[in-house]
Amino acid sequence: MSYPALYRVFWPPTFSEVRGQDHISTTLKNAILTERLAHAYLFCGPRGTGKTSSAKILAKAVNCLDLQNGEPCNQCANCRAINEDNFLDVLEIDAASNRGIDEIRDLRDKVRFAPSQGKKKVYIIDEVHMLTNEAFNALLKTLEEPPAHVLFILATTEPQKIPLTILSRCQRFDFRKINTSEIANHLADIVQEEGVAISEEALNAIARKAAGGMRDAISVLDQCIAFAGARIELEHVEMVLGTVSEEATAALIDTVIGQDYSRLFVSLNDFVQQGKDIKQILRDCIQYCRQLLLLKVAPKEQLIELSPDSMDKAKQQAQALPVEFLGRMINRLATAEKDLRYSNQPQIVLETAFVDLMIQGTEPAVQAVTEPQKPQRTAQKKEQTATTAKPVQKLVASEELLQQWSEVMNRIKSKSVKLHAFLNEAKPAAFQNGELILRFSHQYKFHYNTVNQEENLRLIAQVVQELTGAPVKVTAELENEEGHIKQELTLADEARRMFGEDVPIEII
């Protein structure tokens, strides 16, 4: 005995049960009630959004013997026959496999005959954009002057490929992607009816994976039920889909931020060894970075689709990362996904994309600080600048500088908002003998790693020197979990410690 797929079992029988397409369902019901039906319809939109379902419901409605407020009754002989695919006057044609002129000529010859069972003869042509030019030309005459008893419903995912002569003779409806919450709610109804328990995290993961397609979501749910049985958890969904968890993706982003090359390669190799598809790894990272970008620019909108367990970490990363870096990261990973089709070494494409991002760093604006400012074009502008600029306050006492650390932070912010955000987690521990020591707690390691970059230390030293009037060396320190300072010496520091400060050192 064959097992019916869930998406066929839960096929919507009426317009009101088509999820996410209320604008189309309402229009079609009103057209039926007022007898203002067109002779040809074009249903456009992404896969799995209800085009074929709506076409079948419309075919039932125009042939229903007991219409209920514009909806088919699903009880009369005609409705039952259409539901069982046994109605002679509703013909479904797959244009992908019947795309030639001979098939369309045969259709054109048969439309002249009156319906044998129902009120109207309905032709549903799926993926109509696959027809050849000759087939479209053969169909055109029929669409121009169809018999009164014929209704054409054309469905396509690519309306731009349909000739304008065909488009102009159809009433067009654009089906939109179904939002994640609507998909999740429908899946919840299905599992309840099927007697299956599923966690909210797993439900949302399936809904997000569907990317707006209800049929895809139901198919994934069906697969998860076959895999996990009567109770589905998030890890079951991740195993079935081969996706990377949000926690693992967040950890991967941390390695990029902290420029930890060794950990990066180990993490990516672990994903591959676990059987994760490389394209899926890139897609999951792109989606996660998009969520970080949304948290950055639209944190109160309904676009955020992260799980509650990942939200705190994501907010921390979004606050620390500049918009331009997130945009660059999304673009670079999307380019890598596109490059996979041309490469026989997909893992190298994956690794190279992340290495490129780590080499560029997260702060593209820091270098711009050192660029010379353009001279003002007029004397009047120079005067205005002179009157509005803050006077440089000379400070030499360490206590005075530490007391006015807020002034240092304000000047840093005016030069680099990103560096200011990272520097917020630092404490000015000491300022002695021309050396400023900045200290980070152990939980802010990637803040420390960013501030400790040469160009960032140079910018901080520049600002402090403006205030003190003397050259300054800036040193960043990281505490361990016990509160002690974790020393991370460069090769040059190690050499000077061993041979003395006066020995010239050259690192090659």
List keywords for this structure.
Rossmann fold; 508 residues; Zinc Finger, Delta Prime, domain 3; alpha/beta; 5-stranded parallel β-sheet; 4-stranded mixed β-sheet; elongated; 4 domains; 11 strands; Helicase, Ruva Protein, domain 3
Q: Could you outline the blueprint of secondary structure elements for this entry?
A:
Layout: H1 6-9, H2 22-33, E1 40-44, H3 51-63, H4 77-83, E2 90-94, H5 101-110, E3 121-126, H6 133-144, E4 150-156, H7 164-167, E5 171-174, H8 180-194, E6 197-198, H9 200-210, H10 214-228, E7 231-232, H11 234-241, H12 246-257, H13 261-273, H14 278-297, H15 308-320, H16 323-339, H17 346-360, H18 379-388, H19 398-403, H20 405-415, H21 417-423, E8 426-432, E9 435-440, H22 445-451, H23 454-468, E10 473-479, E11 485-486, H24 491-499
Helix pairs in contact: 3-4, 5-6, 8-9, 9-10, 9-11, 10-11, 12-15, 13-17, 14-15, 14-16, 16-17, 20-21
Task: Write structural notes for this entry.
- This protein is an alpha/beta fold.
- The protein has four domains: 6-174, Rossmann fold, CATH 3.40.50.300; 180-241, Helicase, Ruva Protein, domain 3, CATH 1.10.8.60; 246-360, Zinc Finger, Delta Prime, domain 3 (Up-down Bundle); 392-488, GMP Synthetase, Chain A, domain 3 (2-Layer Sandwich), CATH 3.30.300.180.
- 52% of the residues lie in helices and 10% in strands.
- It contains 24 helices and eleven strands.
- The chain has helices at 6-9, 22-33, 51-63, 77-83, 101-110, 133-144, 164-167, 180-194, 200-210, 214-228, 234-241, 246-257, 261-273, 278-297, 308-320, 323-339, 346-360, 379-388, 398-403, 405-415, 417-423, 445-451, 454-468, 491-499, and strands at residues 40-44, 90-94, 121-126, 150-156, 171-174, 197-198, 231-232, 426-432, 435-440, 473-479, 485-486.
- The chain has a five-stranded parallel beta sheet, with helices on one face. A four-stranded mixed beta sheet has the order 8-9-10-11. A two-stranded parallel ribbon has the order 6-7.
- The chain is elongated and about 100 Å long.
- The termini are far apart.
- The relative contact order is 0.06.
